């Protein structure tokens, strides 16, 4: 038995158009899964890579800043022929400002996309899995700020702390029902969300000093953890928040 074989499984990946979501979608495809790529913008590049791995790709357009779209995403994926096997909640946004200046608009935008939509995607997916009597895996994308406070990202810290919390809560509720709920907590990754940090020479240097691995993560560094949490190898793993951080939390 290949514990990491995802053949015959479907993975729904949000924010699959770029960065971590794209890398995870391709990594899951290379392990044998067919992919539903969910994004606000075109997922053309991801589709090309998934098909190059010999897997099927279905694109679903959705704006997850509107949490009401969560149920529609799952319904559309199932109507297109996917089965409720794996859900990766990766889509997210960030807003940066001093807490004294942080606006309610920026607070709500981040919480709606990064936390509220995550919960309701989990809910809709779990309902479909239970109705189909299928074992399923949910992988949420948490953050170093699920463990730490950070600076100038108050809504993002609140949301990612919440993602860790609901990951544990849903694991408690659904573990005995055949649904594993876990999370990956990426370290500092070279993505669009961290462009401002990497452009700040002082902050970039401070971050690199603390990473034992000596470099920022690349999106593809998250793929192996996702394959593990999606595969039979993790069948007895529930409620874990797995740091993939180059040793950041160990420093």
Short description:
This protein has 251 residues and is of the alpha/beta class. Helix content is 41%, strand content 15%. It has a single domain, classed as NAD(P)-binding Rossmann-like Domain (Rossmann fold, 3-Layer(aba) Sandwich).
Task: Write up what this structure looks like.
The protein has eight helices and seven strands, in the order βαβαβαβαβαβαααβ. It has 251 residues and is of the alpha/beta class. It has one domain (10-243): Rossmann fold. The chain has a seven-stranded parallel beta sheet, sandwiched between helices. Helix 5 (154-174) links the parallel strand 5 (136-141) and strand 6 (179-186). Helix 3 packs parallel to helix 4 (104-132) and helix 4 packs parallel to helix 5 (154-174).
Strand content: 15-25%
> Overall pLDDT, averaged?
97
Tally of alpha and pi helices: 8
Gross geometry: globular
Spatial strand arrangement across the major sheet: 3-2-1-4-5-6-7
Element pattern in H and E: EHEHEHEHEHEHHHE
Q: What name goes with the CATH superfamily?
A: NAD(P)-binding Rossmann-like Domain
Oligomeric state of the chains in view: single chain
Which spans of ≥5 residues are poorly predicted at pLDDT below 50? Answer: none
Task: Tell me the radius of gyration.
Answer: 17 Å
Count of spatially separate domains: 1
The CATH level-2 architecture is identified as 3-Layer(aba) Sandwich
- Pairing-aware structural class of the strands and helices? alpha/beta
Q: List how many beta strands DSSP finds.
A: 7
Q: If you consult CATH, what is the topology?
A: Rossmann fold
Q: In which range does the helix fraction lie?
A: 40-55%
Largest sheet: 7 strands, parallel
Distance between the termini: 37 Å
The first-level CATH class is given as Alpha Beta
């Amino acid at each position: 038995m290949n514990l990491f074989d995802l053949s015959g499984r479907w993975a729904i990946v949000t924010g699959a158009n770029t960065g971590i979501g794209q890398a995870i979608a391709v990594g899951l495809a290379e392990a044998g899964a067919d992919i539903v790529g969910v994004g606000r913008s075109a997922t053309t590049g991801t589709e090309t890579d998934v098909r190059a791995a010999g897997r099927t790709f279905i694109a679903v357009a959705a704006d997850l800043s509107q949490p009401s779209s969560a149920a529609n995403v799952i319904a559309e994926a199932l109507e297109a022929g996917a089965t409720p096997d794996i859900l990766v909640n990766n889509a997210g946004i960030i807003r940066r400002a001093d807490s004294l200046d942080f606006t309610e608009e920026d607070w709500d935008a981040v919480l709606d996309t990064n936390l509220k939509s995550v919960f309701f995607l989990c809910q809709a997916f779990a309902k479909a899995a239970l109705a189909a009597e299928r074992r399923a895996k949910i992988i949420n994308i948490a953050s170093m700020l699920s463990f730490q406070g950070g600076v100038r990202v108050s809504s993002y810290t609140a949301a990612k702390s919440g993602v860790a919390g609901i990951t544990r809560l849903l694991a408690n509720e659904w573990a005995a029902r055949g649904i594993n709920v876990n999370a990956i907590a990426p370290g500092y990754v070279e993505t669009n969300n961290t462009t401002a940090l990497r452009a700040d020479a002082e902050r970039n240097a401070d971050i690199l000093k603390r990473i034992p691995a000596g470099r920022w993560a690349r999106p593809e560094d998250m793929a192996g953890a996702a394959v593990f949490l999606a595969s039979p190898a993790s069948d007895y793993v529930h409620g874990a928040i797995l740091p993939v951080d180059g040793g950041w939390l160990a420093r």
